[in-house]
Amino acid sequence: MPPFDRRDKIARRAGVMHIHFMTRYVRCLARAATVAAAFAVVATRTAAQLPATVQSPDGKNIVTVALDSGVLRYSVQRNGANVVMPSALGFAFRGAPRLLGGLHLVDVARAEHDETWTQPWGEVRRVRDHHRELRVTVEEDAGARRRFVAVFRVFDDGLGFRYELPVQSGLTQFEIMEELTEFAMASDGRAWWIPSFQPNRYEYLFRASPLSTLDTVHTPLTMEMPSGLHVVIHEADLFDYAGLNIRGGKEQNRTLRVMLAPMRDGVKVRGTTPFVTPWRTIQLADRAVDLVPSVLGLNLNPPSKIADASFVKPMTYDGIWWGMHINTMTWQSGPLHGATTANAKRYIDFAAANHIGGFLVEGWNLGWDGNWVENGDKFSFTQPYPDFDLPAVAAYARSKGVQMIGHHETGMGIANYERQLDSAFALYRRLGITAVKTGYVGDKTKEGDAHHSQPMVRHYRKVIETAATYGIAINAHEPIHDTGERRTWPNMISREGARGQEYNAWGGDGGNPPEHETILFFTRLLAGPMDFTPGIFDISITRPTGTPRPLEASRPRTTLAKQLALYVVLYSPIQMAADLPENYEGHPAFQFIRDIATDWDTTRVLEGKIGDYVVVARKARSNDEWFIGAITDEAPRTFAEPLTFLEPGKEYVAEVYADGATAHFLTNPTAVVVSTMPVTASSTLTLRLAPGGGQAIRIRPAR
Ligand code: NOJ
Q1: Which fold has domain 21-299?
Q2: C-alpha 221 – ligand 1 centre gap (Å)
Q3: Which fold has domain 503-527+545-566+591-703?
Q4: Which of 33, 52, 389, 564 has the fewest beta carbons under 10 Å from its own?
C-alpha cells in the first residue's frame, strides 16, 4: 500500500472520500448516532426498563427485548404471531468468560428514521429507509463488568440487529471464539440451503428441507413457514468480522445459531473496543413475491462514500471467457491461448457492432501456465503474455467506445495480490480500464484462513476501497457473500457467489437443474446482484467437437428463451453475453441481448414460487421501456399477465421471445419464436413456458 497521503491524493482525484484505517472503528460507532441525529423524527431516552418493544412503522413487526435470568434475549412477532421465540445474545471469548449471563440493564434509547435515497444504479431507483430503533445497553453484575449495546432497527420488511462493544476497562482487545446469537424459530419451516465449509464455497445446488434438520448452512437462508410467512436470515454491513454461517437445528430442534468462519488458529474475530458487529438481518414477507426487491440490507449500510460514481457503468459485456470453460480456448499460453490481441479485437468489434457496452479478457497476464489454482501466489497482475498487447487492446476498445473489463484471478494468493494491488489498478487506470473482474478460486488462503474469515472480509473490502481510489468497479467471483456493500461503495458492481452458468460447461453433474434459477432468485439474489453470465445459445455445446454433448453431460438445462429471460430475472448491472460471438451471429433472438437494459427504475415481481417459477417486470431507468422475464422449472406453465403497470392510454409494442411449440430443455432447447404485437395498459399477455423454459419480452413505446 502506498503512503496514505498519496492514496488520499488519488482518492480526491477519483472523487472518493478515503477513510483512514485507524479511525474506521471509531467512525463506525459514531455513524449510527450521526445518521439518527440527521434524520430522526423522534429520538428519546425512555425510563430504562425491560421488557422493551419496538414496532415497525406499519405496526406489523414487533421486536421484544427482555432480560431473562440475566441473559439478554430478543423475540420477533409479525401480525400478532410468533416468528422468533426468545433468543439469546452474547459472545464466547478466548481467555475470558462468556459475555452472556449475569447482566443487568443500564439504558434504553429509541429513535425513528425516515429517509428516501436514490441508488446510483440498481434494481430500483428510489429506496425508502423507514425504521424504528431500540438501543439496549446491558452490563455484567460482577467481575469485569463488561457491557454491550444491542441495537435493533425494525422496518416494514424485517429487522436488523447488531452488537456494539463500547470502550471499557473490562474489555479492550478481544478474540471472539463464537457469537452466541440465537434464532429460536417459532415453527418448523421449509428452508432452502447450501452447505457451509465446503471446498466450492457458495457454489452448490440448493436443497429444501425442514429447518429443524439443518446442519451448517450459508446465508441468505430463506425459509417458508407453515403459515406462508417467508423469513430470510442474512447479514449486512460486514467489513471487519468473520462471515456468517447458520448452524441448524439438527441437535437443537428449531434453534438456529451463528457459526462464524474461522481463521487458521480457530479464532473467529480479533478486535479492540470500540467495536461494532455486522447487522444480523431477518427479512419478513407474507408472500414469496414480496421478498423482491430486497432493500433491508442496503438500508443497514452507510450511504455512499464515492462522491461521483459516474465511472461505474451498468452495461452488457462480451468476453474471452466461455471458450475457456468449454475448451475451445485456454487461459494458458499455447496454440489455443484465448487472450491474443487479434481475438480481443474481434470481441471488441462484436461488442461495438451490437450495442454491447463492455468486453472482458481473461488469461491475459502471466501466471496461468501450470496448475494456477495451486500457484496463485505466482500471478503477475501487470505483465501480459507476449501475444497480448495490453496497451494496444485497451486503446482499440476506447476507440470503439467499448469499456474494457480487466481480470485478476488470485487463486487465493492474497498476499501476492495485495502486494500488487496498487500497481495493478494504477496500470488499468492509465489504460482507461474502469472495471475489473476478480477471482478467488480456493477454499482457504495460502496461510490457512477460511475463505470467508475475518482476514478475507478485510481483504475484499480493501480491494473495493482501493479500486474506488483508482476509479475502478469490481465484479468479484468466488466472493464473500454480499452484505449490501454497494450502497457505501457503488463501485462494488456485481459478484458471483453461487453456482453460475459455468457449471453448465463443466459441473460434472449434468449442469444446473431447471429449478436452479427459480431458487437463486429467492435466495442468493436477495443479497444483491449476481454475475450469473446468461445468454448461452449453443445449448448443447456443439462448438468444440461439432457434435452436441449427450443429454446427461454438463450443458444448460434451459431453453434458449429461458436464457434470454435470465437477463431480466437474475439482476446484475453488468450482464454478460456469455456465448461465443459466432453462436450469436445472425440469430434473430440475439436482438433481445442487444436491447436489454441493465439499470432499472422499478422492479415488480408478478409471479413466484421458490423452486418452481418466477415472472418479473422491470422498467428501464433511461427510457420508457419495460422488460418481462419469466422462467419455470421442468414443468411447463402458462401465465396470464395484465400489463397494468404500463402508462394508461399510451401505445406500446411488445417484442416477445417465446419457447417454440415443441420446445423442451432436453429434447428441443433452441426452438424460439420471435413476434411483436401492439399492447396497452389494458392488455393481458399469455405467456406459455415449455418444460425448463422461459419467455423474454421487451415492451417499448410504439413509434
Ligand atoms: C472462476 C470464475 O467463476 C470464472 O468466471 C473464471 O473464468 C475462472 N474462475 C478463472 O478466473
Answers
A1: Beta-galactosidase; Chain A, domain 5 (2.70.98)
A2: 25
A3: TIM Barrel (3.20.20)
A4: 33
Which secondary-structure segment (H or E) carries 349?
A: helix 341-353
Residue type, 558: T
Q: Which pLDDT tens digit goes with each residue over 536-548?
A: 999 999 987 889 9
Query: What is the per-residue DSSP string for 80-110?
Result: TEEEEEEEE--EEETTS--BSSSEEEEEEEE
Residue located nearest, by CA, to atom 8 of ligand 1: 439
Instruction: Residue 537: name the closest of 615, 593, 475, 596 by CA.
Output: 593
Ligand 1 touching residue 362 (CB < 6 A):
yes
Catalytic residue among 123, 140, 478, 502: 502
Residue 337 CB less than 6 A away from ligand 1? no
Mean pLDDT of 329-351: 98
Residues contacting residue 360 through CB under 8 Å, at least 6 positions apart: 317, 318, 319, 320, 321, 405, 407, 437, 576
- Predicted confidence band at 30 (pLDDT cuts at 50, 70, 90)? very low
pLDDT for 575-590, tens place per residue? 999 999 999 999 999 9
**pLDDT, the chain, mean:** 93
Q: CA-based angle 147:151:157, to the nearest 5? A: 160
C-alpha cell of 21?
Answer: 484505517
- Tell me the mean pLDDT in the region 207-233: 97
Q: Is 502 a catalytic residue?
A: yes
Residues 6 or more apart whose CB falls under 8 angstroms from that of 481 comprise: 202, 218, 219, 220, 234, 235, 243, 244, 452, 497, 527
- Distance from the CA of 437 to the center of ligand 1, in angstroms? 9
C-alpha cell at 318: 462480451
Q: What's the predicted TM-score (pTM) here?
A: 0.94
With a 6 Å cutoff on the Cβ, whether 243 touches ligand 1 is no
Query: What residue segments make up the domains of the chain, in order of their start?
Result: 21-299, 503-527+545-566+591-703
Tell whether the model's pLDDT for residue 14 goes beyond 70: no
